[in-house]
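Problem: given the chain below (100 residues), write out its structure.
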Amino acid sequence: MSKLNPRDLADLVRRPLVTEKATRLLEDNKYVFEVAPKATKPQIKAAIEVLFDVKVTSVNTSKPPRKQRRVGRFMGHRPQYKRAVVTLAEGSSIVLFPEV
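Solution.
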């Protein structure tokens, strides 16, 4: 694998996803992120490790099917996205909800 630029890695991870299933996965030290559709698993792993300074053990990705949406009489689709479930090593954690 070639050397990855940290500036490019920051653009791969778009945002953390907070759903019911994602909050249940937090108990197993798994975090869910929306990532760029063309991002690969090694790129996602490197990006999470650089951005959050944690050790990643595995990355699982999925591309959910696009849903059709209607605006007036015109049919279209929701934007395509990729979801990544990142499993962290024991003792590592990411603070998604900081104390104010």
